[in-house]
Amino acid sequence: ATQVLEKLNGGPIPDVKFFHMDYINIKGRKVRALRHGMAGAPGLEIWGPYEEYDEIRDAILEAGKDFGLVQVGSRAYASNTCESGWIPSPLPAVYTGESMKKYREWLPADGYEGTGSIAGSFVSDNIEDYYTTPYELGYGPFIKFDHDFIGREALEKMADKPHRKKVTFAWHHEDMAKIYASLFIPGEEHYKFFDLPIANYGSSSFDKVMMGDKVVGFSMFGGYSYNERTALTLGIVDPDINIGDVLTLVWGEENGGTKKPTVERHKQLEVRVKVSPVPYARDARENYAEGWRTRKA
Description:
By secondary structure, the protein is of the alpha+beta class. The chain folds into two domains: 1-71, Probable tRNA modification gtpase trme, domain 1 (Gyrase A, domain 2, 2-Layer Sandwich), CATH 3.30.1360.120; 117-288, Elongation Factor Tu (Ef-tu), domain 3 (Beta Barrel), CATH 2.40.30.110. It has eight helices and eleven strands. A six-stranded antiparallel barrel has the order 5-9-8-7-10-11. It has a three-stranded antiparallel beta sheet with strand order 1-2-3. A two-stranded parallel sheet has the order 4-6. Helix 1 (2-9) packs across helix 2 (53-64).
């Protein structure tokens, strides 16, 4: 990405801190650039007027030809996070609490919080069981108590306590084969379809991950990695779960599935998953040094 961006800019690009913004030049136009890195390597997200979209996009594609840049389509856009370790869609923790009441009343009924859905095998009558914390999602290094902010007191109380931790679940290839094989057996109920390249079928996913009879974590976002030839999902596990542990992920919803439009009638399957590092991709893990994905809280 850096080589393409430097070619576009006509020279070295600014040293922008993670999730900060600056400007670069593309075809004589000054465009805003957000330091991101969704693919697990340093990169910039380009911002500008929509009427310049085609011109800027064409310039990027032209500059990238010498470096093997190809278009992969919007459905593949989120699949790289399976390798790089970013959980993009945790459930917003806004549905309970008196302090959030005015905010809930302000939100539109047709907004994300009002129309979002929960998918997966974990089921609870308490919405707070689906809440996660910044520490669990890997944002611990960003939490600083040198200034005031909403939620500071709550985070200070939990800062020194054990936290669930973010991991990658690598799905067993034989169990993945069972899912697809079940689609071709006439007259029998099949397993929940695992869509490619991203398998999520709700706004926020929560498939329970078991060790014996105990729920020890959740699978929250995932799909298929062509690079790794593996189904990968991101999630969180209890503090005592270790890299290398083989756990059981319950794939599919109970009682044949809910009535969401994205859910066909199906049966559940217990899938063997290996607890793996975040990021899963070795290149991202080793070469994205000092990044938020690789640092520990």
